[in-house]
User: Fold Acetyltransferase-like isoleucine patch superfamily enzyme from Desulfovibrio intestinalis.
Amino acid sequence: MLVVQVSQHHSATSLSNVMDTDASEQTTALPPGLAEVINMSMLRKALERGLTPANIISYASLQVMTRWGRFWGTLRLRCKAALVGVPIGAGVTAHGPVGLMRWPGSHISIGDETSLISSWRRATAAALATPVRLRTFGPGARIDIGPGAQLSGTSITARSTAISIGRQVLIAPNCIIVDSDFHAHWPPEARATEPGMEGDRPVAIGDYAWIGLNCIILKGVTIGEGAIIGAGSVVTKDVPPHSLAAGSPARVLRSLVPTEDRAAAPQSAGQARPAAQTEIPLRRDA
Assistant:
């Protein structure tokens, strides 16, 4: 229960007078834990904007569901990671259930401040169809999630090589990343029984890259730092840093570096361009 005391020289004839009373003349008492869920500044703003009780209740319920989902999801993730031997950095959060399956002799790590989103209740994951799943399929396989990365319903499966996700990489809902074809190409009659592991290739996604909704990143691909992959793309070849690629198969469409930055880049033969200013020619058939 909220208790408000107002000095005698203030009129208590309206709620607005009470809310505008100097903080030194008020005393608030909230049940333990409720202060974190109900922010009084938010309540004051809601009242000032004239929101209806239904809107206030709707917003409060969203906050409660989001905070509870994050608390419970993070607790489950840390318990599961401790059981299966997956190191997790500081500040890692999970919204909803996260699938962790680590083959003996393989490695999975999750960096500091990583966010794993497996629940549609999170506003940025409204299109989420599946939870986050991290799985190694054999000894020597490796999955490394860099600090600050945000994965939404991402499925990552490393069978015999390494899949690395860089610092602060953004991966939109329902993306798939694999290092293998999982079956031999030839002969056709042996595909169901031959794993074809000799064709496995590592995958690397550079720092600050952004992977759009419903993308598939196949074996052997390196996505450069700061690159963007358009929604629904199937990435089969390397993508240069700071470039935009999209399509099935994905093709580089243009550079993300502003024109003035490219023009200011060093031009002399003896002076190389910085990686962030590497010019990528536009495709004429895009």
